[in-house]
Amino acid sequence: MLMETWLAALASSGADASAHVGADGRVTIAIRGEMDLASAGSLYRRARAALSEADGDVRVDLGGVTFCDAQGLSVLVRIANDAQRQGGRVLLERVPPNVARLLRITGLDRRFPMSAGAPSIPEPLG
């Protein structure tokens, strides 16, 4: 019973992703909520479905992300790898400061180009 309650809590928590295909064929994936262990699988499946519609680069709008851990970063890397196999790349948009910091700490800021509208990645303190 306790395990069922825990699994139900995992399934209902986390993040949501939606996708939009523009007239130019570019896909934008908007992620909202927590990108973590509980949501990583679902987010990746939704993003992967959106990538099947992509023709080139894919925008990932992170403006609604409230939390991101290593599993969330893993989702971004997997999406980028899939986009690259299709001849495109992932551009991050509206990156929240907490996610920008993780990207900088892990070196992934060099992996993901950011659109002009995205906040710059803060420099380390001290």
Automatic annotation (TrEMBL):
SUPFAM superfamilies: SpoIIaa-like. It comes from the Bacteria. CDD domains: STAS_anti-anti-sigma_factors. It holds the Pfam family STAS_2. InterPro entries: Anti-sigma_ant, MlaB-like_STAS, STAS_dom, STAS_dom_sf. Gene3D superfamilies: STAS domain. GO terms for molecular function: anti-sigma factor antagonist activity. Residues 24-126 form the STAS domain. Belongs to the anti-sigma-factor antagonist family. This is Anti-sigma factor antagonist. The lineage of its organism: Bacteria, Bacillati, Actinomycetota, Actinomycetes, Streptosporangiales.
